[in-house]
Amino acid sequence: MSVLSTPVLILAVAILVWPGRVAGKRRLRLLTGRQGPDTRAAPGVDADPLAAAAVLDLFAACLRAGLPTAAAAGAVVPSAPEPVATVLRRAADLLALGADPTTAWDQASAGVADEAVVALARMARRSARSGASLAVAITELAQQRRTEVEDAAAARAERAGVLISGPLGLCFLPAFLCLGIVPVVIGLAGHVLNGGLL
């Protein structure tokens, strides 16, 4: 081994080990210029519940700016969560190929069970048939989605408050009995027994 390779080897090991394996591998990829797998979303971490609403707002803004529906749908696909991204991509491709908007949105949303996607496709079909503004309907859908997420978060918070009261009660009930009830009962028993009432 040459004198130059020893410090390089020590530096490589230090980069990999300090302060952790994941951070070390990330630094090593940055140093070597290699791209690894996308690690933005850790496994087991829930996706942003408001991401669909943000994408719908962006889609509506693109439509208000004058973009055709196919171009607007294609523009928001990179930032859209699944399954919204898949449906928007399919619809954009079908519309760009010249498909009828009603058919394009119907085929794009086929087999998708997500409520936001089904509502988006339904509004797009209705807008294509009636000529009504799709941007206004999508903005209302985004607001409805935000309200649903807010209601769900409030329900989870209320449920957590109820669930925490059980262990809290189990902690305070013995203290209440020992410090509140037992001294009163002992005091009354002392007066009753010493007073000759029994």
From TrEMBL:
InterPro entries: T2SS_GspF_dom
Membrane topology type: Multi-pass membrane protein
Domain Type II secretion system protein GspF residues, every copy: 56-178
Transmembrane segments: 6-24, 168-193
Compartments, as annotated in UniProt: Cell membrane
A GO-annotated cellular component: plasma membrane
Keywords assigned by UniProt, alphabetized: Cell membrane, Membrane, Transmembrane, Transmembrane helix
Protein name: Type II secretion system F family protein
Protein's organism: Nocardia uniformis
